[in-house]
Each structure stands twice: as structure tokens, then as C-alpha cells.
Amino acid sequence: MAGVLLPWVRVSPAHEGPVISIYHSGMGSGLELPHGLVLVPTVLLLSALSLAGYRYRRGELVVGAVGALAVGWFIQSWQGTFIAGPGTWVTLAGCLFLTAVAAIGLYRRRKRVKSTA
């Protein structure tokens, strides 16, 4: 969730020439974007369920994978004068980590079920 609080869009350091003084949504934080508005409630819901003792590995896997794809698309859409900022990369790392943890959990559960059968 830390990635949502960081800027998602910034001026490219490789850009030569004047920078147009335009403020894009996401230059302040990812909460200005639809991605942030969807990400925060999803993280809060998964955290609350996890604290309550429920582990929905399939749900975590879907959220992580879809989040990684959405953030990847966002990164690709910003080329030229403006590029993806640090919040985008932190969010992508979080989505990939969530996907990996959920996939490992599903694999271990499947392996445990097969060994008891």
C-alpha cells in the first residue's frame, strides 16, 4: 500500500527541452488515480480477512496477478516527457510479491492434500 502514497507519474530525467507545466493525476500520489482508489480497499479487505484468520489464496493470486498486469499497462502507457514514478514500481513489486506468496501457498496446500489422500 506504500506505493499508492508515492507519486505515480514524474518528468523523465532523459527529457531534453522545456517541460510543459501540466499537472497530471498521479504526480501527487497514486490515490489520485482509479488504480489507487481500487487498490486501497482491496488491500484493506485482504488484510482484514487475513487478520481474522481467513486465507483466500485464490483471491490473493487473482488480485496480485490482475494488479501486476494493470500496473504493467500503466507503466507502458507513460512514455516520453512523463514516465512512471516510484509509487508505480513499489506497487508492482507488491503485486508480484502477493502473487508469488499466494501461488506458493496454493502449491503447498495442493501438495499436502495429495499426500494425505
Describe what you observe in this structure:
With 117 residues, the chain is mostly helical. It has one domain. Helix content is 63%, strand content 5%. It is built from 4 helices and 2 strands, in the order αβααβα. Strands 1-2 form a two-stranded antiparallel ribbon. α2 runs antiparallel to α3 and α3 runs antiparallel to α4. The relative contact order is 0.20. The mean pLDDT is 79. The chain crosses the membrane at residues 33-54, 61-83, 89-107. Keywords: Membrane, Transmembrane, Transmembrane helix.
End-to-end separation in angstroms reads 39 Å
Averaged pLDDT: 79
- Backbone CA Rg: 18 Å
Helix content: 55-70%
Total strands: the figure is: 2
Low-confidence stretches: none
Largest sheet: 2 strands, antiparallel
| Topology pattern, helix = H, strand = E | HEHHEH
Q: Order of strands side by side in the largest beta sheet?
A: 1-2
Category by helix and strand content = mainly alpha
Shape: elongated
Counted up, domains total: 1
Task: Tell me what portion of residues adopts beta-strand conformation.
Answer: 5-15%
Number of helices: 4
Summarize the structure.
The chain has helices at 2-5, 34-51, 57-77, 86-116; strands at 9-11, 82-84. The protein is mainly alpha-helical.
Describe this protein with a few key phrases.
117 residues; mainly alpha; 4 helices; elongated; transmembrane helix
